[in-house]
């Protein structure tokens, strides 16, 4: 079976759920000796079930895709879907950030609800849990416009509890929801090599493979909320790795080592990491342009800390990293990339790394 064909199962399940009470009512009336009445509500139920019965294999030219959030990550990610031949309806609070996509064939609308009305599958990638709640569950949100059998995929980093809430609301409306946050930064988004961590119904996630593979490599993590939990663990790992990276660079410099040579020496050993690969050279060049914003990372680490409190576990490395990043916000540097952590450590030590001017 083609991966996209797996999407048929959730819709068949919806038909069964929707028609079951109609069938019971029909049998009840028959048992009472009265003729079943074909009421307007009966026909509305059949109409909804018929809509859900439409084959849902994900194919360019037939599957309508919606996208909400075309910032640093979103623009590149949905650009890959557009390039794969899918029709695309987009919304962004700052319309100018979606203009490049519109020039390539995307259609811009004025609300998340309007995106949902014109889409079979809607992706969202926005900044904060409050934004996720507004664009998906709000008065003009996705679930208000999504047709029965439709799917909403939230790729933001958000709260696992909110992901479970969205899933429950989607199910009530005969729809599906997947939480699928990503890791890999702006370079991964542009290259289509993101790590995608998915939570929800496994068959729904399998059905989305043709779309996920446009953006990177998906891994199914478990039921609703599991994708977000995986992403938070990912952010905890990155936070401590970034602290180690910038501390090691400062130590090497203070010890009189050439920092570039030091990085080359450790890159192939146990200290090598994706953070070193992506950010070490940027740090040396004082390139703090955001692949991932500091203020969004502070938000992620804050959610992780809250989850730890709920679980009753202590992660001191996470707490320290979060405070170091909060310091950047205190200096008005929240719009820089996460590699700007070096600035905090430089200020603590009254020390500045030498600038690398060549590749």
Automatic annotation (TrEMBL):
<protein>
    <recommendedName>
        <fullName>3-hydroxyisobutyrate dehydrogenase-like 1, mitochondrial</fullName>
    </recommendedName>
</protein>
<dbReference type="InterPro" id="IPR036291">
    <property type="entry name" value="NAD(P)-bd_dom_sf"/>
</dbReference>
<dbReference type="InterPro" id="IPR008927">
    <property type="entry name" value="6-PGluconate_DH-like_C_sf"/>
</dbReference>
<feature type="domain" description="3-hydroxyisobutyrate dehydrogenase-like NAD-binding">
    <location>
        <begin position="225"/>
        <end position="342"/>
    </location>
</feature>
<dbReference type="InterPro" id="IPR029154">
    <property type="entry name" value="HIBADH-like_NADP-bd"/>
</dbReference>
<dbReference type="Pfam" id="PF14833">
    <property type="entry name" value="NAD_binding_11"/>
</dbReference>
<dbReference type="Pfam" id="PF03446">
    <property type="entry name" value="NAD_binding_2"/>
</dbReference>
<feature type="domain" description="6-phosphogluconate dehydrogenase NADP-binding">
    <location>
        <begin position="64"/>
        <end position="220"/>
    </location>
</feature>
<dbReference type="InterPro" id="IPR006115">
    <property type="entry name" value="6PGDH_NADP-bd"/>
</dbReference>
<dbReference type="InterPro" id="IPR013328">
    <property type="entry name" value="6PGD_dom2"/>
</dbReference>
């Amino acid at each position: 079976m083609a991966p996209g064909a797996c999407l048929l199962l959730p819709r068949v399940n919806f038909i069964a759920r929707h028609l079951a009470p109609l069938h019971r009512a029909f049998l009840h009336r028959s048992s009472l000796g009265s003729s079943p009445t074909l009421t307007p509500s009966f026909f509305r139920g059949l109409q909804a079930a018929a809509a859900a019965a439409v084959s849902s294999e994900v194919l360019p030219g037939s599957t309508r895709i919606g996208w909400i959030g075309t910032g640093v990550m979103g623009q590149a990610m949905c650009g890959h879907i557009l390039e794969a031949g899918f029709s695309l309806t987009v919304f962004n609070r700052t319309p100018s950030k979606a203009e490049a996509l519109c020039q390539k064939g995307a259609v811009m609308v004025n609300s998340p609800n309007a995106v949902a009305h014109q889409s079979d599958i809607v992706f969202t990638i926005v900044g904060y849990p409050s934004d996720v709640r507004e664009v998906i569950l709000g008065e003009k949100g996705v679930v208000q416009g999504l047709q029965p059998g439709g799917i909403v995929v939230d790729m933001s980093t958000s709260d696992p509890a909110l992901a479970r809430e969205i899933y429950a609301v989607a199910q009530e409306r005969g729809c599906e929801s997947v939480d699928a946050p990503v890791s890999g930064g702006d370079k991964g988004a542009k290259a289509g090599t993101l790590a995608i961590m998915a939570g929800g119904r496994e068959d729904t996630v399998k059905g989305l493979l043709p779309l996920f593979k446009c953006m990177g490599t998906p891994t199914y993590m478990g039921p609703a909320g599991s994708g977000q939990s995986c992403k938070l663990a990912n952010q905890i790992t990155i936070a401590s790795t970034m602290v180690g990276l910038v501390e090691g660079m400062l130590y090497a410099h203070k010890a009189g080592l050439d920092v570039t040579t030091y990085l080359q020496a450790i890159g192939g050993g146990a200290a090598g990491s994706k953070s070193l690969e992506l950010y070490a050279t940027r740090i040396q060049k004082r390139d703090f342009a955001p692949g991932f914003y500091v203020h969004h990372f502070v938000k992620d680490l804050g959610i992780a800390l809250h989850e730890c409190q709920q679980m009753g576990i202590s992660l001191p490395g996470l707490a320290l990293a979060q405070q170091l990043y909060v310091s950047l916000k205190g200096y008005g540097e929240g719009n820089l990339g996460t590699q700007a952590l070096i600035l905090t450590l430089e200020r603590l030590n009254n020390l500045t790394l030498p600038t690398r001017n060549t590749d």
